[in-house]
Amino acid sequence: MPRQIIIDTDPGQDDAVAILLALASPELEVLGITAVAGNVPLALTQKNARIVCELAGRNDMAVYAGCEAPLVRKLVTAEHVHGKTGLDGPQLADPVMPLQAEHAVDYIIDTLRSAPSGTITLCPLGPLTNIAQAFRKAPDIIERVQEIVLMGGAYFEVGNITPAAEFNIYVDPEAAAEVFLAGVPLVVMPLDVTHKALTTQARVDAFRAMGTRVGDMVAEWTNFFERFDKEKYGSEGAPLHDPCVIAYLLQPDLFKGRHVNVVVETGSDLTLGMTVADWWRVTDRAPNAMFMGDLDADGFFALLTDRLARL
Ligand SMILES: [Ca+2]
Q1: How far apart are the first and last CA of the chain?
Q2: How many angstroms is it from 254 CA to the middle of ligand 1?
Q3: 131 CA to middle of ligand 1, Å?
Q4: Which of 10, 96, 169, 297 meets the CB 3.0–4.6 Å disulfide criterion with 273?
Q5: Max CA-CA distance within the chain?
Q6: What is the pLDDT of residues 91-150, one digit of tens each?
Q7: Which 3 state secondary structure label does DSSP give 309?
Q8: What is the pLDDT of residues 209-242, one digit of tens each?
Q9: Active site members
Q10: CA of 42 relative to ligand 1 center, distance in Å
Q11: CA triplet 169, 170, 172: central angle to 5 degrees?
Q12: d(CA 276, CA 264)
């Protein structure tokens, strides 16, 4: 039986690739896609999620709009990386498939309550606002979650939006702090991993060589955000952050990490949103997260290319 997942997302070109990877993979059943404000405002992330579903030929997918602002802070966005639409690069038509009427938070709650306990995995690819709101509103669902596999945080790579913090966690640190302490089995894909998933020229060429619309789109998205990241990091390509979450569900042996304690900083202006990971186990705080640190990048891109070619 395929593993049932809900993708919570703020597309974002790398979110788009993650959604495509999930929809292309028979091991996974995407129950629904919940949008959250993050890379761009909610009106665009929910629209972008639908654009991506249509690109995959999945106009039947249910897409829900969630929270338009973090729990207590003003929204910070990342148009400087993703462009004004969040999916800048290729020309994309507006979606025709509808947005679901139910709020994403209620959808998450209802879905977890109606399914057998421990059968649904949450895959957050953006700020953790929707997940934290669902846990606040319906604490009974927390123990029903099979696992949370998320993109966010950093330890050795430290920060990409501030010197100390990764974007997803920084945007809603209070939500992240609550989710990390909720007691749900947690797998974290921090920058330490995603910065190894680099879109080199050969890897982008492989997307284009598929000769499909999906392959062309992924190559164009990658070219768009690469310009920014190459200059910033001086690397040979851009990190493909969010697909790491889906790749982990398909092939966990591509990743290596440690089960450690991770706490999110919410009090300091200087290090707000920092994921303080006890990598060296220097405290007696109980481990709460599988915090990944290494990736078989060639294996990751082989998996991604193989699956995207099926769409
Ligand atoms: Ca994202």
Answers
A1: 21
A2: 20
A3: 14
A4: 169
A5: 53
A6: 899 999 999 999 999 999 999 999 999 999 999 999 999 999 999 999 999 999 999 999
A7: coil
A8: 999 999 999 999 998 887 777 777 777 888 999 9
A9: 241
A10: 12
A11: 70
A12: 6
